[in-house]
Amino acid sequence: MRPPLPRLHAITDERIARRPDLEDIAAELAKGGGSQLAFHARGRELSGHEHYELAVRLSDSQSVRLFVNDRLDVALAVPCAGVQLGRGSLPVDTARALNPLWWIGQSVHDLAEAEAARVSGADYLVVGPVFETASHPGRPALGVEQLGAIVAAAAELPVIAIGGITAERVQDVKRSGAYGVAAIRALWDDADPAAAARRMREWML
Fold first, then answer.
1. What architecture does CATH give domain 8-204?
2. What is the pLDDT of residues 113-150, one digit of tens each?
């Protein structure tokens, strides 16, 4: 039986993946996030070897579960709790065949994509960008109202909100019905990562 899906997801990008202090920041995030925190090894421009090394570096924590984004080969090579699939990833049923115990998430950006992911058998959805974000410049923000509509359409599937998420916005996102939140800069770049993770975790519960 799988443990519950974490409510707080700390996602990396290429810049964070290459930080020499990655393990130190991860340890601080783990202090604040505890069992509700998941690390996502993500970096679209990383080589396969870099992605693997990133996953290994993030897998040291005893309390935080690891998810691997996009790269199913890396997910098979490093013990992880789940995978996050995007538009260019292999389909959900392929991931399910590789490991039926994985949490399998799908990144979606509108109602149609959410419905397609639900029909495909995804276990949870990562929906965004909810707010404007430097990670996706030029992409229109959904806003909390549209997020709420996707949450309703997702029915029983947990929805993780992403895109411009800050501690101050967590409660608005929660009121929309989201199960959890995901962030990059608001966690990895905070001057006090443990406190940042703690605030987000407490406000999502």
1. Alpha-Beta Barrel (3.20)
2. 999 999 999 999 999 999 998 776 777 899 999 999 99
